[in-house]
Design a protein that fits this description.
Blueprint lengths: L1 H19 L2 E4 L7 E19 L1 H9 L6 E15 L8 E12 L11 E7 L2 E9 L5 H16 L6 E4 L3 E12 L2 E16 L3 E12 L7 E15 L4 E16 L3 E19 L2
Length: 277
């Protein structure tokens, strides 16, 4: 019996030692000749409360702005991204096709079959260069193109070697247009590696939102928190699941009026990855 306990103790100690010393080579990015089927679901609830002098409140009534204003949004987007063979300079082509993009009522946001073309590499995010969409107005094409490119520029993730329990921090700016005012914030996101297998690495996500307003006409006070989980596909060095829940509150004051904003958002993105030979 003593030998059995000793064997279990040694095995357990070795297993814990091996797990604690596993090193993850985190370098999220696209791979050549690969297909990425991605689904993104984003739902948000906003409540905006206005207060101020009589002229301000009368203007709201004339413009038929309810007080408080509540907004619910739900967007589902399905895309397939395909990468090609690597060129001499280390880059490879990427094509992003929109299969579905609708809001909560089923209204089409981006027509199915819309295509974006660009270049990327294993160490950099895509840089798109063109968009093709049948019967779409040029103004909408430009909005979609700029939005996609801007989104990629905000998704740059650092390359890190991590042990279980270690973390890294990413900071990114965010601008929210509210009542004609651009609300500037800084998002600080911490990714903590909690466990890993030969296939996947699992992260806890925590976020904090802080005000970073440069417009001195307004007195602002706002903060927010977010939490979630991230699954990193180790063989494909790509994020296969990203889930976030976010809460944010904002108070904005001017001489004649003030605005109080409360928001709750849920974000989920998944990716199925396969080789494109």
């Amino acid at each position: 019996m003593k030998k059995i306990f000793l064997l279990l103790f040694i095995s357990g100690t070795f297993l814990n030692y091996g797990q604690s010393n596993q090193i993850l080579d985190f370098k999220a990015g696209y791979s050549p000749q690969t297909v990425y089927n991605q689904t993104t679901i984003n739902s948000s609830d906003y409540e905006v409360m206005y207060s101020g002098n009589d002229n301000f409140l009368e203007t709201l009534k004339k413009n038929q702005v309810p007080n408080p204003t509540t907004i619910k949004s739900n967007i589902t987007i399905e895309t397939v991204s395909k990468t090609g063979k690597t060129d001499k300079d280390g880059t490879f082509p990427i094509t992003i096709e929109y299969l579905k993009a609708v809001d909560g009522s089923g209204k089409i946001i981006i027509p199915s079959g819309t295509l974006l073309y660009g270049k990327t590499s294993s160490t950099s995010l895509p840089k798109m260069d063109s968009i093709v969409a049948k019967d779409m107005e040029e103004s909408l094409k430009n909005v979609i193109f700029q939005t996609v490119q801007s989104t990629f520029s905000q998704l740059v993730m650092p390359q890190k070697k991590l042990k279980i329990g270690e973390s890294f921090v990413q900071e990114s700016p965010l601008t929210l247009p509210i009542a004609g005012i651009n609300i500037e914030m800084q998002i600080t996101t911490t990714y903590k590696l909690k466990s890993m297998t030969s296939k996947n690495a699992y992260f806890d996500i925590t976020q904090t939102y802080t005000m970073k307003m440069s417009d001195t006409r307004f007195e602002t006070n706002g903060s927010g928190m977010g939490s979630g989980d991230l699954v990193y596909d180790i063989p494909n060095h790509f994020m296969s699941e990203n889930i976030l829940k976010m809460d944010f509150n904002l108070d904005l004051k001017h001489t004649d009026f003030s605005i109080q904003l409360k928001s709750k958002s849920d974000f989920k993105q998944t990716a199925q990855i396969s080789k494109n030979n």
